[in-house]
Structure formats: structure tokens, C-alpha cells
Design brief:
The structure holds 2 protein chains of 2 kinds. Chain A has 9 helices and 16 strands. By secondary structure, chain A is of the alpha/beta class. The relative contact order of chain A is 0.17.
Chain lengths: 304, 56
């Protein structure tokens, strides 16, 4: 027997595999194709104060080993997420729920976090200061240590649940941003959100995505994500959720050796909808192959 | 082309739309469109929309 249990700020996960926000809807959509209770936790669709339609379409463009998206945070708004979406997920799912919150001002982050903090069914709040697909918000909070710290401090003041700040890789120094979040009181760090990319339609001679530039994710960014998790692990004491290009149980183990306590799977859910289930099913076998008895023993092991 | 047919006809009808999709079953919001009956996903709520609900 091997141990796949990990703990994120006191929240126990039966395994470290978490579908990443934005690639898994509100979870119940995937329950139509497999039992989502095999997952360690779910990070549900990013939520804002007001309902949002998001960006014009096309919003998706495929690439070698990845895809570009520019959804623009389409969601029904925080009130409806609390009154309808989370209860709908709870009907079919009993494992931990991570609620992902976005905003266009510190006040919006505060208001949404305060509301979601009061929801019993939510275990962790993931504060997204890294969306590349909206203007005057999202990523602009995650590209300077001062802003990242200001958001963190503001939401910590109004919440009791663990706060994980989700960071963008589109910065020159990820370590200084992560440290600023830790100094601001963050309970953990989620990294990375999407990189940025562009595709051009050769027949139309125009960008495929209506918004032109989008967020680039998928297997292609795995080494970038791994590097950032590795760097941030050396600089902070709080736990890290490693995200970016994870597609196999081997990737999960690699991400944990770099320093992640849990691992999120994003774009791969859009390549293979069974990706998270398959990773969970393969995890114990791969652990045995590499002689790992307890996943907790390998967190950050590559640094020794 | 759909729009041209829409404008050239006076009868009601069904229109089958295409869009670039991420997941294909209603979770990723990649193929959303606005209709007179609210936001819809081409993959899950479509691809066929009735003429009366279409917003170009």
C-alpha cells in the first residue's frame, strides 16, 4: 500500500490531483462521464462579482502540444455560483471544493471572497490575480509584488478559509511576487496560470482568436511551470499547487518533486476528458515503479 | 452564409452553427454565443438554433 493523501492548509485530499479552474466547469458537467469523487479536489470555474459573458468568439485555438484560450471569465456571477452552481456540484460530489475568485478592483476581490468565505461547502479560496484575458483587472494585480500583496492582505482581512493566490508566469521575477503574497498572509500559492500566445488563420490572414492574443496552456508549458514551482518552493514556506501542462501521473510526481503539495490539471481535460481520472488511476502504479511509498516524502525532494 | 440565408428568408427555420470548441460538452465556455433566450453553448445547447433566437 502506498499513501497518496496530502494536506493543503489543513484540508485533506485523498490524492493530489485537482482539475484546474476554467477547464472543468463547475464539476458536475464532468460527472456525466465519470465519477468525479475519484479526484483529490476540484477548482471550480473562475467567478466574478457580476455575471460575465466573456470575450467574443472564436475563443479557442489549437497548437502543437497545447491550446490558446481567451474565454474572458465567462461566469454567472458570485451570487448565482453560491445559490445554484455549488449546490448542484454538492449533489454529486463530496470531496473538497476550491472556489476560484477574480476581480477588477480590490473591492471586488474583497466582496467576492467575503461572500464565498461564508459558504460551508467551500474548503479553499483560490484568488486569481493572473487572468491574461481581461483588461484592467486579472493579471494586472499579479504582475507587481505591491499589488499582489495588497490583494492578499485585503482578502485575508475578510476571510477565515485558506487563501491560495494564483499567479501568472508572465512576469520577470515570479519569486518576488510569490514572496509578496506570503508576506501578505497567503496560506498558499497556485502557479502557474496560462502563458500568452497567438495563432493566425492563414486563409483569413488574421488572428484566429477574436481577442487576438490569448492564454497558452497545455503540455508545452510543463517545463516552464515546473521551473517556476521549483524556484518558488525555495523562496516560500507556504504550500504550492503546481499547475501547467500536467498530463500524466509521472508529471504529477515530477511537479511534487519540484515542490508542489498538490497538482492541478488544466488543458489536458480538454484533450482527454478522462485525463484526471486516468492520472488518479495510474498514480499508485507509477509510485510503485519509482519506489515512492508516501507522496508527502517527495514534496520538494529535487532540492535536496 | 447562414446570415445571408437568414436575411434572404421570411420563414422561420433552424440554423446549425459552428464554433471552435475546447471541451465539446459544455464545461469550458469556449463556444458561447448570445441568443434572445440567454447565453448558449454551441456544443451543448446547440449547434442548432431556431431563427427566432439568433442574434448576429
Amino acid at each position: 500500500m502506498v499513501n497518496t493523501k496530502v494536506s493543503l492548509s489543513g484540508v485533506t485530499l485523498t490524492n493530489p490531483v485537482i482539475p484546474a479552474s476554467g477547464t472543468f466547469g463547475f464539476g458536475y458537467e464532468f460527472n456525466e462521464i465519470y465519477d468525479i469523487n475519484v479526484l483529490g479536489a476540484i477548482s471550480i470555474k473562475g467567478t466574478t462579482k457580476e455575471p460575465r459573458f466573456g470575450n467574443p468568439t472564436p475563443r479557442i485555438a489549437e497548437c502543437s502540444s497545447g491550446l490558446i484560450n481567451s474565454i474572458g471569465l465567462q461566469n454567472p456571477g458570485i451570487d448565482k455560483v453560491i445559490s445554484e452552481e455549488i449546490p448542484k456540484l454538492r449533489e454529486v460530489y463530496y470531496k473538497p471544493i476550491i472556489s476560484n475568485i477574480s476581480g477588477f478592483s480590490i473591492d471586488e476581490y474583497v466582496e467576492c471572497c467575503q461572500k464565498i468565505d461564508a459558504v460551508k461547502d467551500v474548503d479553499i479560496i483560490e484568488v486569481n490575480i493572473s487572468c491574461p484575458n481581461v483588461h484592467n483587472g486579472g493579471m494586472s494585480f499579479g504582475t507587481s509584488p505591491e499589488n499582489a500583496r495588497a490583494v492578499t492582505e485585503a482578502v485575508k482581512k475578510v476571510t477565515t478559509k485558506p487563501i491560495y493566490i494564483k499567479l501568472t508566469p508572465n512576469v520577470t521575477d515570479i519569486v518576488s511576487i510569490a514572496k509578496a503574497c506570503e508576506d501578505g498572509g497567503a496560506d498558499g500559492i497556485s502557479l502557474i496560470n496560462t502563458s500568452q500566445g497567438l495563432r493566425i488563420d492563414l486563409k483569413k490572414r488574421r488572428p484566429i482568436i477574436a481577442n487576438k492574443i490569448g492564454g497558452f496552456s497545455g503540455r508545452a508549458i510543463f517545463p516552464i511551470a515546473l521551473k517556476m514551482v521549483y524556484q518558488v518552493y525555495e523562496a516560500v514556506k507556504i504550500p504550492i499547487m503546481g499547475i501547467g501542462g500536467v498530463a500524466t501521473a509521472e508529471d504529477v510526481i515530477e511537479m511534487m518533486m519540484a515542490g508542489a503539495t498538490a497538482v492541478q490539471v488544466g488543458a489536458e481535460n480538454l484533450v482527454n476528458p478522462y485525463a484526471c481520472r486516468d492520472i488518479v488511476n495510474n498514480l499508485e502504479r507509477v509510485m510503485q515503479k519509482y519506489n515512492i511509498k508516501d507522496l508527502n516524502e517527495i514534496i520538494g525532494e529535487a532540492h535536496k | 452564409m447562414l446570415k445571408a440565408v437568414y436575411n434572404a428568408t421570411t420563414t422561420s427555420g433552424s440554423y446549425s452553427f459552428e464554433e471552435r470548441m475546447g471541451c465539446g460538452f459544455g464545461a469550458c465556455m469556449g463556444c458561447s454565443c448570445k441568443t434572445k433566450y440567454g447565453n448558449k453553448r454551441i456544443c451543448k445547447d446547440g449547434p442548432v438554433l431556431v431563427k427566432e433566437e439568433i442574434i448576429w
